[in-house]
Design a protein that fits this description.
Layout: H1 3-34, H2 41-55, H3 77-105, H4 110-132, E1 150-152, E2 161-163, H5 164-186, H6 188-198, H7 200-205, H8 210-235, H9 243-258, H10 263-278, H11 290-302
Antiparallel strand pairs: 1-2
Helix pairs in contact: 1-5, 1-8, 1-9, 1-10, 2-3, 2-4, 2-8, 2-9, 3-4, 3-8, 5-6, 5-8, 6-8, 9-10, 9-11
């Protein structure tokens, strides 16, 4: 393989892999604290993209209750993305209050919680379709202002052309990962989250508000999903209300590959799957989505606990 093509594919893989990582971190945080998988995470991913599209001045099509509707104001893309992430986080907290908390207080089986979150996901997706239809929506071409559409990191003779949107995606993802790592490892809130993840009962006895930490975890999870959805939507398009389903399934593959409950594992798993997809030959690009699940299958056979699984603690 030509060295310029190799570098280009690595950069492409890091770009999409970083999005997989921040999306999968939402799964990981909730699993770390409650020991369950939030199947509504993919729907929140979709919702965040729609929020950002709307706040950035996007208008809807001819179908749905909000046909031809648009906000009277248009926020810059960066602000729209952040606000969209915040709104997605608030919806995620609402999901926790409706679908998770009542069952948790009753000590229900975790399987019932999975079914409950799946029901919420279906409700969110169908609500989106009812409101705005099933059309594809694309962000405006000038969302990054005067930045060029692509940047050449090579020479005229050996060009290494990378789309600007991919560089922005990678940069935003790295910043988010860095901030999240700092919050979890070096702040009181992060230490409280770790304590609740370890043992919520003991954490409560030590004065930690476990319910607040759970809501905070769901907010951060939803925020990450909303940001990831917006980044993907800006790179490709918002491919209808169901476009978060594929990413939701890939997110599951990422956290299993990296190790359930492991934050570094989610990052590593996302990057590995992104790189693997980037190197799929063009003739087989239609099967690119199968890469994540092929890696998942191999991992389950070889190392079911994942690459960087958390050490299990024995409670006596």
């Amino acid at each position: 393989m030509d060295i310029t093509l190799l570098i280009k594919q690595v950069l492409n893989g890091l770009s999409i892999g970083s999005v997989y990582a921040i999306f999968a971190l939402g799964y990981t945080l909730v699993f770390s604290v409650l020991g369950i998988i939030n199947f509504a995470h993919g729907a929140i991913f979709t919702l965040g993209a729609y929020f950002a599209y709307t706040l950035h001045g996007g208008s809807f099509g001819f179908n749905g209750l909000l046909a031809n509707a648009a906000l009277p104001i248009k926020f810059p893309f960066a602000i729209a993305m952040i606000l969209g992430g915040i709104l997605a986080g608030l919806v995620s907290v609402l999901v926790e209050r409706i679908a998770f908390r009542p069952l948790r207080l009753k000590g229900a089986d975790s399987l019932l919680t999975l079914v409950s979150s799946l029901g919420v996901a279906v409700a969110i997706v169908n609500t989106i379709q009812f409101l705005v239809g099933a059309e594809n929506y694309s962000f405006a071409a000038d969302i990054y202002g005067n930045l060029p559409e692509s940047i050449n990191f090579g020479s005229v003779a050996n060009p290494i052309v990378i789309r600007t949107v991919q560089l922005v995606i990678f940069g935003v993802s790295v910043v988010i990962l860095a901030v999240l790592t700092y919050v979890i490892n070096f702040t009181k809130l992060g230490k409280a989250l770790k304590a609740v993840a370890e043992d919520p009962t003991t954490a409560s006895l030590l004065g930690i508000d476990a319910e607040f930490i759970i809501m905070f975890t769901f907010f951060v999870s939803g925020f990450l999903a909303g940001i990831a959805g917006t980044l993907v939507g800006s790179s490709f398009s918002i491919a209808g209300p169901y476009f978060g389903i594929t990413f939701g399934l890939k997110g599951l593959a990422v956290i299993v590959l990296g190790g359930l409950g492991s934050i570094p594992g989610a990052v590593l798993g996302g990057v590995l799957i992104g790189l693997a997809e980037a190197f799929v030959p063009a003739d087989f690009s239609a099967y690119k989505d199968a890469v994540a699940f092929a890696l998942l299958f191999v991992m389950l056979l070889v190392r079911p606990q994942g690459l960087l699984s958390r050490k299990a603690t024995t409670k006596v």
